[in-house]
Design goal:
single chain; mainly alpha; 4 domains; six-stranded mixed beta sheet; P-loop_NTPase; transmembrane helix; membrane; Signal transduction protein; transmembrane
Length: 905
């Protein structure tokens, strides 16, 4: 009885009576809650999982389909170049990286756009490569997406002349533009392409490339600009990875740029080709035979004609020039003005396919007829502010053809189609609705010709049009005629050309007037003296701390005009007044530190002018500013002229001057692999007497061999493994004589400083040492075999296998040592060549890499220790580990920065 009473606990019973009902109540409420919201929770889980899965699926299937399809489209795959025949260049192979001014911009635009969400404006002159750049960026991004690279985004490219927003409220225009992007992606056949756009717009990001804001019609421009700005804000709110790139002409940007300052804060301006860019473009051109000779010939032709070279600093004009040259266009001499050049090209296009069947009179009549038709259409398009530039009405064209031919509408349309098909100068945009010239500059040129030659009082009409456009509230109209006016003045009959130039001058800016002088070469006018004095005053009155990109560009144009005037004086037997040199002397003499920026600018555009500039201010650049010469040595024209000046020195004339030039050559070669290779291909004259007569052979920084001109040029030539050359002799003088660095007291170590700590090639042991070591290894192996194996006689199978295996391994080791010994001298030469920045052409042969790995051939440990800090370009796939090459690249960048910082010295 006691046990039963002890079993019952009143407190426990009371708690149970209270807690159990409460617990039961809570459980029921929880079950009810789960029943009501389970689907929502599952939806959230499935949404998260599905989003990841859908993104992966989109990347794997839809994105690849999108990228593969658009990469095959001819619209972005090829760049069309007008000429006698249609020339289509592969965008990927012919494109040359463009230079940008640093107005809140970056030289590596592609990485900037892919790395973070940006709003960037790309501006440039007509034909400067804006559309080509957009196509190249578009194809690069498509390729990255196709291969699934980590930094890829979804690229979308649109031509703004086809971008026609409806008349909607401002807040709705952005949504409309967003829908247009979505529809552009969905137009590619594939798996849920609209969702592909949504996935990237909300996640990783899209890159929207909008090309040609200046080609938008004036009446729709406000809606287009608003739609772009609203679209930019909408994309920015959806993902921080979205980027928008907008291109337009520089002249147009000067008028409307402030409207986009907030929405598109980054501005990059495309710079004209430097001589290096021209040289590289020529090297990329697909010549049919002997490309190297063709490149050399064309580059020399351009270098000898400053005006022609200036004209060809425009990528479009350069492409047209090369295409014409390939077709035999320059049998009678190259044109020296843009007007003459465009005239030749247009004549080829207008009658190119029927010229063989027609006589000269019929050919002339056909050209005049077609030029009249296209000239009227171009003039009406340019003069009508309501029409988009270079977007012309099909029906208007038929009416013009009817009027010119006095024919029916049916005959007129047939003839217009023949012009379209036979000339290639125009192309159809929308069937039977609109067409365009293959480039806006053709439209401008033909419009100018029509103003000048097609109507009475044409230049006066153009003057009145310019006056009206200058007063317009529409920004794009104020810069619409900047290319037309120089073409028109140059195309005017010589009896009226002077009046046209004088009459138009008050209504154009200084840049347009300068180009008018380049086109007309009217340097005997009083207007020329006024222009020259005005430009000199404007340039000289600008403080040096305000010498920005715009000022340097203006200075460069003025310099080109002065050079052209100097050529004109020679041609017409006028006395050379030396005004150009006097102007630069006045500009810089008051402050020689200004020379650095101006010299670098001219070194890349007019090498002779750069040296004349230094002479005019009484500065010996080799002695006082060697860093400036080194920094400019990557330009082929400047490098060629500098080497000519060096080779003109007499070996016994000026020892100090030879040493100063040796400093320049050695450090320039260590800075650039291309420069090092070129200097290694030149004979060491005039350094031979200085090195061979005064330095011990053991201190020479080259291996035995013949100078480049006496060698047999082949793949195995010793000239590329640091033989006697201009470069190796300069290195020898600098290292042996401990000549001062052009960096002065700067802390950065240079490649030459570190080469000086190594054993010179002239002191290295000869090949017989390696042969002796190889013979010693083989002899030791044979002796060991004779000592151990032969006396054993008969042994058990197990012992025999053990001894045989051991000696087989030993034989492999001995053979590896023998191979390494025999190969060591050539590997050592190869290694020293890399350290001196000279790259042997056979370093990448696959069988050599296999050979090195099998036989354990590596650099000596001493060289490996030194190479970690060498500031030269090193091959990543030879003896140098990736981390060592990375360190070397970092050091090389520091070296280049030190060179360019010479401006402060």
């Amino acid at each position: 009885m006691v046990c039963v009473l002890n079993w019952f606990d009143p407190l426990t019973a009371a708690l149970s009576a209270v807690v159990l009902p409460i617990g039961y109540f809570l459980i029921r409420r929880l079950v009810k809650f789960l029943k009501e919201h389970a689907s929502e929770l599952l939806d959230a889980v499935f949404f998260a999982v599905g989003r990841v899965f859908r993104t992966a699926l989109m990347r794997r299937v839809s994105l690849r389909r999108y990228c593969r399809t658009l990469l095959g489209k001819s619209g972005n795959r090829y760049l069309a170049v007008p000429g006698r025949t249609s020339v289509l260049l592969e965008t990927d192979s012919v494109f040359v990286p463009l230079r940008f001014s640093k107005k809140m911009g970056s030289q590596n635009l592609m990485n900037e756009v892919l790395g973070k969400g940006l709003r960037v404006r790309i501006i440039g002159d007509p034909g400067s490569g804006k559309s080509s750049l957009v196509k190249k960026m578009f194809r690069q991004m498509l390729s990255q997406g196709l291969h699934g690279l980590p930094q890829h985004k979804l690229p979308i490219m649109l031509e703004l002349k086809t971008f026609s927003p409806p008349d909607l409220a401002e807040d709705l225009l952005g949504k409309w533009a967003y829908g247009e992007l979505r529809r552009a992606v969905a137009a590619v056949e594939g798996f849920e392409m609209e969702k592909l756009f949504d996935v990237y717009a909300l996640g990783r990001g899209v890159v929207v490339l909008l090309d040609g804001l200046d080609e938008v019609a004036g009446d729709v421009y406000p809606r287009v600009a608003t739609a772009i700005l609203e679209l930019s804000r909408l994309l920015e709110n959806k993902s921080d990875g979205n980027s928008v790139v907008l291109t337009m002409r520089s002249q147009f940007h000067q008028q409307i740029g402030e409207h986009f300052d907030d929405g598109f804060p980054m501005v990059v301006q495309i710079q004209p080709f430097t001589p290096s860019g021209i040289y590289r473009f020529l090297g990329n051109w697909p010549f049919d035979d002997d490309p190297e000779a063709q490149v050399t010939r064309l580059y020399s032709e351009l270098a000898d004609r400053p005006t022609l070279r200036e004209m060809c600093s425009n990528p479009l004009v350069l492409a047209m020039y090369v295409a014409s040259d390939v077709e035999g266009r320059h049998d009678g001499g190259a044109p020296d003005t843009r007007t003459a050049f465009y005239s030749n090209v247009v004549e080829e296009l207008l009658v190119r396919r029927r010229s063989r069947q027609l006589g000269s009179q019929a050919r002339s009549m056909l050209r005049e007829q077609r030029e009249t038709i296209l000239g009227r259409l171009a003039r009406d398009n340019i003069a009508d502010p309501a029409q988009p530039a270079n977007s012309l009405s099909w029906s208007t064209a038929i009416e013009v053809v009817r009027d010119v031919l006095q024919a029916s509408a049916e005959v007129a349309e047939v003839e217009f189609l023949r012009i379209l098909n036979e000339t290639g100068i125009i192309s159809e945009e929308r069937p039977r609705e609109s067409f365009r010239f293959i480039h806006l500059t053709f439209c401008e040129f033909l419009a100018a010709r029509e103003f000048a030659q097609g109507i009475t009082g044409g230049w006066q009409a153009l003057r009145d049009l310019q006056k009206a456009f200058a007063k317009s509230s529409q920004a794009q109209l104020r810069s619409r005629l900047v290319e037309v006016i120089p073409f028109c003045v140059a195309s005017t009959h010589r009896s009226e050309r002077t009046d046209a130039l004088i009459g138009l001058a008050p209504f154009v800016d200084s840049e347009t007037l300068g180009r008018c002088f380049l086109e007309t070469q009217a340097y005997d006018l009083a207007l020329w003296a006024d222009y020259r004095a005005s430009e000199e005053k404007a340039l000289e009155s600008t403080p040096s701390d305000q010498w920005d990109e715009d000022w340097l560009r203006r200075l460069h144009l003025f310099s080109v005009v002065l050079s052209d005037e100097a050529e004109w004086r020679v041609l017409f037997n006028r006395e050379d007044d030396g005004h150009k040199d006097e102007f630069f002397a006045t500009l810089i003499r008051s402050d020689k530190s200004r020379l650095s920026r101006v010299f670098v600018t001219f070194a890349r555009t007019d090498a002779p002018a750069a040296f004349r500039l230094a002479d005019a201010v009484g500065m010996d650049l080799v002695a006082e500013r060697p860093g400036l010469i080194i920094a400019s040595f990557d330009d082929p024209a400047f490098r060629s002229l500098a080497i000519q000046k060096f080779e003109a020195l007499r070996p016994t004339e000026n020892t100090k001057k030879l040493e100063q030039w040796s400093i320049v050559l050695a450090h320039a070669g260590m800075t650039s692999e291309f420069v090092a290779d070129e200097l290694a291909d030149r004979d060491p004259t005039p350094l031979q007497a200085r090195v061979n007569g005064s330095l011990d052979a053991s201190s020479r920084w080259y291996f035995d061999g013949k100078p480049p001109s006496a060698e047999t040029r082949s793949l195995w030539s010793a000239r590329r493994i640091l033989g006697p050359s201009m470069y190796s002799y300069a290195l020898t003088l600098v290292i042996t004589r401990r000549l001062p660095s052009p960096f002065g007291t700067k802390s950065e170590a240079t490649g030459i400083d570190l080469l000086a700590t190594l054993v010179p090639p002239g002191r290295l042991r000869r090949r017989w040492v390696s042969v002796s070591l190889a013979f010693l290894f083989l002899t030791a192996y044979l002796a060991l075999y004779a000592t151990v194996v032969l006396p054993l006689g008969k042994v058990s199978e197990l012992v025999g296998m053990t001894i045989g295996g051991a000696f087989a391994v030993l034989l492999y080791a001995v053979l590896a040592l023998v191979a390494a010994s025999l190969k060591y001298p050539s590997a050592r030469r190869f290694s020293y060549a890399i350290l001196a920045n000279v790259q042997p052409p056979w370093g990448d042969e696959p069988w050599r890499r296999v050979f090195r790995r099998i036989f354990l051939i590596r650099l000596p440990r001493l060289v490996l220790r030194r190479v970690k800090a060498v500031g030269v370009q090193l091959r990543r796939d030879t003896f140098v580990p990736p981390e060592v090459a990375t360190a070397a690249d970092d050091e090389r960048r520091n070296t280049v920065r030190a060179l360019l910082a010479d401006n402060d010295g």
